[in-house]
Amino acid sequence: MSVERILLTNDDGVDAAGLRALYDALAPDYDVVAVAPTGDRSSIGRAISADVDVAEHELGYAVDGTPVDCVVAGLDELVPDADLVVAGCNEGANLGAYTLGRSGTVSAVVEGAFFGVPGIAASMYVPGGDDWWKRELPPESFAHAVRATRFLVDEAPEAGAFERADYLNVNAPMAEPAAGDGGEASAADESAPSDAAVDPAPMRVTAPSEWYGMEATADGDGGVAISDPIWGRMTPADVPDPVGTDRRAVVDGEVSVSPLSVPHAAERDAGLDELADRYGADDADGE
């Protein structure tokens, strides 16, 4: 397959720094049309609306709805000739099998796969334990994710990746200035790509971690606090995942690329055939 036109979306909102970073990286060589939510729709999964308002935006369209709304509206009406869906770059990682259905970023490319359009979901791991989401990050922080996503957009279709996978879930570490770089770009560097000032991170093909540890704790006032303890274990010594998993790769400073297919594959040999044959038969025998 060849890629000429890209539908760009996210779950952080059309004006998010991560989406703009990807747009700026892809637009010089591809026809990129953003179809993204008007505001933050994080962790909303594959929620869909009956009606959404759509407004023109300098990058394409702003949709007052979910990431899945954006992809359905985009591929069936606004950008029907898109060759690829790119979602992100999300501020925060989408790591582990249990996050795939929860993530709006991943859900966007899953929806695209049902249209027969492959996709790349791009996310950036932000260190900081449970408070990582409070950090305000400049576009340069997304450099590893942007570099990896641009590389995969350029190379993965010709390599046949989308003949064997419906989408790629990409998670990258947050970029830090390269050695010897003071972290501030000069005026002459302002037009350079956002990944120009960082050394590239290595890339590893991974599978989503199967570790699961969500917790719920009664607060004593009739409520329950729900938390994910993994964010306190994101160090090489504490992370519970082996090499080859998405979470371990990011902790080790690598870009994780998981080639995945759309969910809900039917399992024919599940031991239910006999039950289906018996269903209702006992009642008939008792008549």
Describe the structure.
The chain is globular, with a radius of gyration of 21 Å. It has one domain: Survival protein SurE-like phosphatase/nucleotidase (Stationary-phase Survival Protein Sure Homolog, Chain: A), CATH 3.40.1210.10. Helix 1 crosses helix 4 (143-159) and helix 2 packs parallel to helix 3. Strand 5, helix 3 (104-114) and strand 6 (119-125) form a beta-alpha-beta unit. The longest helix is centred in the middle third of the chain and has 17 residues, at 143-159. The chain contains eight helices and eleven strands. The strands form two sheets. The protein has a nine-stranded mixed sheet with strand order 3-4-2-1-5-6-7-11-8, with helices on both faces. Strands 9-10 form a two-stranded antiparallel sheet. It starts with a strand and ends with a helix. Mean pLDDT is 88; it is low at 179-194. The chain is α/β, with parallel strands linked by helices.
Keywords:
single chain; 287 residues; alpha/beta; Stationary-phase Survival Protein Sure Homolog, Chain: A; 9-stranded mixed sheet; two-stranded antiparallel ribbon; 11 strands
Mean pLDDT score:
88
Strand content: 15-25%
Largest sheet: 9 strands, mixed
What is the chain-wise order of helices and strands? Answer: EHEEEHEHEHHEEEEHEHH
In CATH terms, what is the fold-level topology?
A: Stationary-phase Survival Protein Sure Homolog, Chain: A
Strand order, largest beta sheet: 3-4-2-1-5-6-7-11-8
Helical residue percent band: 25-40%
How many DSSP E strands?
11
Q: Count every helix, treating DSSP H or I runs of 4 or more residues as helices.
A: 8
- Rg on CA atoms, Å: 21 Å
* CATH architecture tag: 3-Layer(aba) Sandwich
Any idea what the CATH superfamily is called?
Survival protein SurE-like phosphatase/nucleotidase
Number of domains: 1
By CATH reckoning, the class would read Alpha Beta
Which ranges are low-confidence, i.e. pLDDT below 50, for 5 or more consecutive residues? 179-194
Terminal CA distance reads 60 Å
Shape: globular
Judged by helices, strands and strand pairing, the structural class is: alpha/beta
